[in-house]
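To illustrate the input format used throughout this study, we show a single complete record. The first block contains the structure-token representation of the backbone; no residue identities are included at this stage. The design step must infer an amino acid for every position from geometry alone.
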């Protein structure tokens, strides 16, 4: 029996060419060529598709079409990443098989590998499961503006990429932050539903609050029909009147429901319009309280 086994191994060694030689490549050119070609094509096409849909998502608005674009970009990016990993894994198995390695134990030991991952790579498993639930629940999509509260602090910006393990966020100063999904504790999505712009207007104590309220209400009524406000506002603005009193000022509050991604824009432009209208109507601002820093000249 030992003699027969030795002759069998000798015969196999005579017929199987040395790995990575010309004869070996000639023997395995089709299976290796096809699998690596498929992996390369999936990688190139998947990344281009994901980039294309991410670019379309960034150009979408707050309407149903814009939300649909962001969701599609998220799905395409996630699926392309999974397909690319599977394609290269198949190529690796094919290469090992052609090298004479028995891949049956590798496939059969997938359950054991999973158990090992559960004990030795708990962070990867936690991040991947968190990313899967973020995707299924639709907590945010590519192109959404979010505040992600993590154990290391808050990361604010626009979602550029969502993978199973990590989320890439482009912050307002241009920094690209990569956040492990398992570290995300609270998600604040600023691109869903609606936003509320709130502007507090301090005026002097000796000003008539009803007169100031009327001036501000006339202003917001005019702005409601002017661009870009008429595109950004969901409801007419309301002047809530005096919401706070200090020793030097009375604070009037203006609130308006906006499209979610334009809340900050509405607040910024509304402040500029309020200052101009108050100056035009001669409404006095409160004096600077003692001890408060003066604005730079």
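Output of the design step:
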């Amino acid at each position: 029996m030992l003699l027969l086994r030795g002759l069998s191994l000798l015969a196999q060694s005579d017929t199987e060419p040395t790995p990575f030689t010309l004869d070996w490549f000639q023997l395995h050119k089709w299976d290796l060529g096809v699998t690596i070609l498929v992996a390369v094509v999936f990688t190139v096409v998947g990344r281009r598709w994901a980039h294309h849909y991410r670019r379309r998502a960034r150009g979408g608005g707050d309407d149903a079409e814009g939300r649909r674009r962001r969701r599609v970009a998220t799905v395409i990016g996630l699926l392309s990443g999974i397909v690319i990993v599977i394609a290269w894994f198949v190529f690796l198995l094919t290469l090992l098989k052609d090298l004479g390695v028995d891949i049956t134990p590798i496939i059969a030991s997938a359950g054991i590998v999973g158990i090992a991952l559960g004990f030795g790579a708990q962070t990867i498993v936690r991040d991947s499961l968190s990313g899967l639930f973020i995707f299924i629940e639709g907590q945010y999509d590519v192109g959404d503006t979010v505040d992600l509260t993590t154990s290391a602090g808050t990361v604010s910006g626009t979602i550029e990429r969502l993978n199973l393990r990590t989320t890439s966020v482009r912050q307002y100063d241009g920094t690209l932050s990569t956040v492990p999904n398992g570290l995300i504790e609270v998600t604040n999505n600023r691109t869903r539903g609606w936003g509320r712009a709130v502007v507090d207007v301090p005026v002097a104590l000796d000003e008539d609050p009803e007169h100031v309220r009327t001036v501000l209400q006339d202003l917001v009524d005019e702005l409601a029909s002017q661009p870009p406000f008429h595109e950004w506002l969901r409801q007419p603005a309301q002047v809530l009147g005096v919401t706070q009193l200090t020793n030097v000022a009375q604070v009037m509050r203006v609130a308006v429901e906006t499209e979610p991604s334009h809340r900050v824009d509405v607040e910024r432009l509304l402040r500029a319009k309020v200052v101009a209208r108050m100056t035009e109507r001669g409404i006095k601002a409160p004096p600077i309280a003692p001890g408060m820093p003066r604005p730079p000249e």
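Structural context for interpreting the output: The two ends are 100 Å apart (CA to CA). Confidence is low (pLDDT under 50) at residues 1-14.
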